[in-house]
Amino acid sequence: MKEVIAGLLLLVAGCNTGRTAGVDPVADDPHAAVQINVTNNHGYPVEIYAAGQGTSYRIGTVLPGQAGKFNLRPGMIGHGPIELIARGSPGAQPARSGGMMLNPGDIIDFDVSPQMLNSMANIRPRRI
Asked: Which domains does the chain have, with CATH numbers?
């Protein structure tokens, strides 16, 4: 009987993949990228910028009616709030996400509205 129990314990231990249920290995990686999904419902192409900690940089362009996926530079994560900015037609007010506190592996959905001031950004954690 002891041999059967010992064998079952070894079998159970061998089946463990090293991952704990409910733990996200991406969120535990301090270098995991933050993914930015932009949907442009505005009538013009939009230039997307990230701003935070006294720096800003251009992430990319999304054409009207299109979607784009980008990654935020890892050095911008975890040092304070980050704001996404979408600049559309010349002279128009840009769309701003507002300051967001981000964690490695987060996903941002930034929907640029036809009326730029109605644009919205949401943060969601990456699922395993």
From this structure: 32-124 (2.60.40.2890)
* Whether pTM exceeds 0.70: yes
C-alpha pair distances (Å), 90 with each of 19, 45, 57: 50, 11, 19
Q: Which residues contact 108 (CB under 8 A, 6 or more apart)?
A: 34, 35, 36, 37, 72, 84, 97, 100, 102, 121, 122, 123
CB 48 within 8 A of CB 68: yes
More reliable by pLDDT, 100 or 91: 100
| 107-112 and 34-40 strand pairing | parallel
The tokens describing 89, both together, are 């037609």
> Side by side, which strands form the sheet with 46-52?
55-62, 46-52, 83-87, 95-96
